[in-house]
Design goal:
2 strands, zinc-finger, metal-binding, globular, single chain, mainly alpha, XnlR_reg_dom, zinc, nucleus
Amino acid sequence: MPRGRPKTVIAPCQHCNKQFKRAEHLKRHERTHTNEKPFLCNCGQRFTRQLSHPSGPCISPPPAELVRTSMIQDVDMGRSDIICDLDLNWDPIYMSQDILPATLFDTYFPFVDTQPTTLPPQTSNFSRFSSRLPPLDDIENDAEDDAEDEDLAEGTTSANAVPWSVTVAAYERLNFEVQNYSEALPGGCSLPSRSTLTRLLEKYLVCVHEYLPFIHPATFSVEQRDVELSLAMAALGSLYRFEHPKSYELYFMAKIMLLEKIRRENLQFMSNFLSGQSHSILDERNDLGKIQTFILLIEFASWADKKILPDALSMSSQLAMLVRQNGISDSDEMPQYVDWFSWVAVEERRRTLLAAYVLFNLHSIAFDIPPLILNHEVGVFLPGYSEQWKAMNITQWRHAPRQVERQFQQGLRSLFDGTGIPRDASVSSFSNYLLIHGLLQQIYIDRHGCAGSLQPDTIKSFERALRTWQLSWEITYESTLDPLSPKGPFGLSSAALLRLAYIRLNSNLDPYRGLLSRDLGSITNRSSNLSRSPHVDRAILHAAHALSIPVRVGIMVMSSTKTSIWSIEHSLCSLECALLLNDWLEMMSTSVRACGPEGLRKVERRLLGIITGIIKETCLAKTLDVLEDDSSRFHRMATMVLKLWTQIFKGSNVLEIDNIIGAGLQLLVDTNLD
């Protein structure tokens, strides 16, 4: 009787007819054609191969997994007790009263866009070793696996390499470049070790980059890019690993090297100009690298320690000039027939220019300053689908769906005229994120151009545009609210901006210029100028819904694990929601004290019921049982809402501005209690 496994004939690959000895090798090979990634890691990424080693017992799951587990459990359980209670308050009749689409406030919030899968338990390699000799098949299998790995690498772009890898040659070049700027760098600055730099670049490209993807991962190479760009990426990666001293050191190194490089180039230009020598315009790729480095440095400085915040504003003016010089106002329509590398060049440039536009908008939202790039200046087309952008080789790129080309201006006009984005020409989640930014900027410009107030017809026009945006977002190919989805985290970020747009449109809160100087007093020393109107009701509804989401997930869970799903958009939106709810509840308290509960409008009573229902699902529920008059009750509810938001901002925050917001809200709570 023959030993070993019976020989079976394996059908060839259906795509390229390549022959394999084992079925599992064939499956793995075919996934290089189909881009299928069936195995889900607890970090949210999907892979073509399953881990062969066992996972040890996890005493404390990683933050991202904690949040994801909580979300999946909510979806699996359907309408849990907390959702059922909230559903009593989210009255569909009330929602149909031309306030907002009911779908937006469905408390069955679809955090995940895929059903959870249960993977079979994996066999431990360690458990196969015993006092007996291992079977020869194990050695044969391992040898075939090694051979197959080599086969799979053929025909792909660096199948085994990763974008964040730093080769010995690349590291030597980095060291050499840093030495060229040693006179400009402060003492004590040094390049991190090669392994540390690799780890920090990985953190940026895998996590941080997802929130504003403009550096193409598959074609990124440390050896071929500017040193200051790699250092800026590493600075953000270090920040998100909570290695703050190293992150600031890398930030200063990248900033000094970039500005010194620009200074030297300007000196060379002036020298050539004065001597009458012909001078060439700096190539576009060089300028693109400068723009990308500026974006990362400004992104770092904008939400960090207040001592470096002036850096963000001073570099922003330089970035705006570069963005204009590099053609953000020009059309860059993608040719119909284009190869992968040409597509990458156009798409990366497009995303880089639009990332600068986003950054200027976020400054306008946070610091109440005019955006440096206005909507009418943006002439480039909207960015493509995430799947095409993340393709690691030509084959994956060819199989990925391609977005219909649409200019930013065209997309923005379609929201205001009510036509929206057609279902058969839906845009990417990044594109929808950019369009809601465009609406927010227009609200800012119109409000500041009308002495701080908007005409009723203008408000109606914006509300139609916001509804059209929501409908367009719902039909898009990449529509998802799962922050860990391969389609990107733009769904949650866009939802935060949508709430912020309704709040900015329908209420007129004092601007928080103090955030620019990190002044806590700017949050507490405000004068509320709210009025009782249907417009304010809409804003309150959005603010209440924003609070209901972390309440459903769990305040303590959000406080300790929000890092993996939290972005600056959530921080800014949460601050305004907290302050708006506080001001409105105080206004309700004053009104009831003066006119009694009979003076409340029906909509206001419904809103108070919604907020009460949300508080009942938290640890502050018992405080609602205190016997007191309605005016005192509403005053205390205002403080409770602030306490809940304050708790969310506690814990470990990546961004320093989150600590400032949390401290400011806590100060406001203490003030209300006095």
